[in-house]
TrEMBL record, chain A:
It is found in: Cytoplasm, Cytosol. This is Glutathione S-transferase. It comes from the Eukaryota. GO terms for cellular component: cytosol. Its EC number is 2.5.1.18. It is an enzyme of class 2 (transferase). Coiled coil: none annotated. The keyword Cytoplasm applies. Belongs to the GST superfamily. Tau family.
TrEMBL record, chain B:
Residues 5-85 form the GST N-terminal domain. The lineage of its organism: Eukaryota, Viridiplantae, Streptophyta, Embryophyta, Tracheophyta. GO terms for molecular function: glutathione transferase activity. The keyword rRNA-binding does not apply. It is an enzyme of class 2 (transferase). This is glutathione transferase.
């Protein structure tokens, strides 16, 4: 019996894109379903009743929620190619640690950059750059956080890399002078086939960011 | 056992995060050296060196390398010591469910319970409602199982340790009653199973000491524990 893989997603989501990338890294055929987050489908509400959020991966009728949990699930099920997590327990722990760092220390200020202004936005920009600098120090001179291979932490960060331009324009600042080697890794990630096929046109993300900024930022 | 193989845990006596690591080590029968870090008084140079990013406990040191963040540590222990007391199921779907509920208990529920007891008065009612919602989902997920992990303690039980033990004491100390036997009979039964477990009960901090700590800190934020 062939696998049925459905992804409930929202095109500009930095979290949804992680699931798309992971599926494409593994060569998994899936059905992409766009969700209107202002009018969530009955399927989404049924499959993720606790959070009612995307992405939700539905594999043979069973839902998996929370983006990095989805990525880990994809890695464990389709384990025959392109491992996303290292096999060494210490390296795996480091990958999980840095994903936790990203989803706390990068997420919170990133969110505030497009949705706030004035002092709050300035503080968010500072915290965002601080977090990116810590990540850049961790990256060192490796091409990817995964070393020579694109992996778990890189997938987590790509959601933010695709939003770099929108963040810069909303916040009126530039990331590259602050974090040149992270930016080089970002470009490398954004050129991967799985990422090119998963990430929307950056112009469209900028447009979307300004649209929602008008709503949230009175 | 040589120096490299020895496991060390930097922890805080009353911290549910710190205790998660000790619980899993003990369940798996892994010997370790415990080092108390009084993070509220002074963070030691050792802690700052081993966890420079967050400067928090718990930290696990093994084979000369340090790992931080309690649930990351638990998964490291699970990946490293694979033959005794598995904390996660084998099946990838069941594993993803365990990770989902562990994160839910850790991220959402624990925080709302804490805020419901000690958050600002103005937000109290909203936090209490959110706490009820969070516990309701956990009650449903637990169902008639002895533990979230089934017949044995698993990742979700460990992640929910605050709910099983610390929260009952916090309720007494703050006077805010949320998790009652009437409203959440399954969670109540589960928490008793958990704290009475022979291994878990050896690890739990003394109730009187926690009660005194909570009463003294009433209204303060705990920001030194990971």
């Amino acid at each position: 019996m062939a696998d049925e893989v459905i992804l409930l997603d929202f095109w500009p989501s930095p979290f949804g894109v992680r699931a798309r990338i992971a599926l494409r890294e593994k060569g998994v055929k899936f059905e992409y379903r766009e969700e209107n987050l202002r009018d969530k489908s009955p399927l989404l509400l049924q499959m993720n009743p606790v959070h009612k959020k995307i992405p939700v991966l539905i594999h043979n009728g069973k839902p998996v929620c929370e983006s990095m949990n989805v990525v880990q699930y994809i890695d464990e099920v389709w384990s025959d190619k392109n491992p996303l997590l290292p096999s060494d327990p210490y390296q795996r722990a480091q990958a999980r640690f840095w994903v936790d760092f990203i989803d706390t220390k990068v997420y919170e200020p990133a969110d505030k950059i497009w949705s706030t202004k004035g002092e709050v936005q300035e503080t968010a920009k500072k915290e965002y750059i601080e977090a990116l600098k810590i990540l850049e120090a961790e990256l060192g001179d490796k091409p990817y956080f995964g070393g020579d291979n694109f992996g778990f932490v890189d997938i987590a960060m790509t959601g933010y890399y695709m939003w770099f331009e929108a963040s810069e324009k909303c916040g009126n600042f530039r990331i590259e002078p602050e974090c040149p080697t992270l930016m080089a890794s970002a470009r490398r990630c954004l050129q991967r086939d799985s990422v090119v096929n998963s990430v929307p046109d950056p112009e469209k993300i900028v447009e979307f960011a300004f649209k929602i900024r008008k709503i949230y930022c009175v | 056992m040589n120096q490299e193989e020895q496991v060390q845990v930097l922890g805080l006596w009353g911290s549910p995060f710190s205790k998660r690591v000790e619980m899993v080590l003990k369940l798996k029968g892994i010997p370790y050296e415990y080092i108390e870090e009084d993070v509220y008084v002074q963070k030691s140079p050792r802690l700052l060196k081993l966890n420079p990013i967050h400067k928090k406990v718990p930290v696990l040191v093994h084979q000369g390398k340090s790992i931080a963040e309690s649930l990351v540590i638990v998964e490291y222990i699970e990946d490293t010591w694979t033959t005794s007391y598995p904390m996660l199921p084998h099946d990838p779907y069941e594993r993803s469910m365990a990770r989902f509920w562990a994160k839910y208990a850790d991220d959402k529920v624990m925080l709302t319970l804490w805020k419901a007891c000690w958050g600002p008065e103005s937000e109290r009612e909203k936090m209490v409602e959110e706490a009820y919602d969070g516990l309701k989902y956990l009650e449903e997920e637990l169902g008639d199982k002895q533990f979230f992990g089934g017949e044995t303690i698993g990742l979700v039980d460990i992640a929910a340790d605050f709910i099983a033990y610390w929260f009952g004491i916090a309720q007494e100390a703050s006077g805010v009653m949320i998790m009652t036997a009437e409203r959440f009979p399954k969670l109540q039964r589960w928490s008793q199973n958990f704290v009475r477990n022979n291994i878990i009960k050896e690890v739990l901090p003394p109730k009187e000491k926690l009660m005194a700590l909570f009463k003294a800190q009433f209204g303060n934020n705990a920001s030194n524990e990971a």
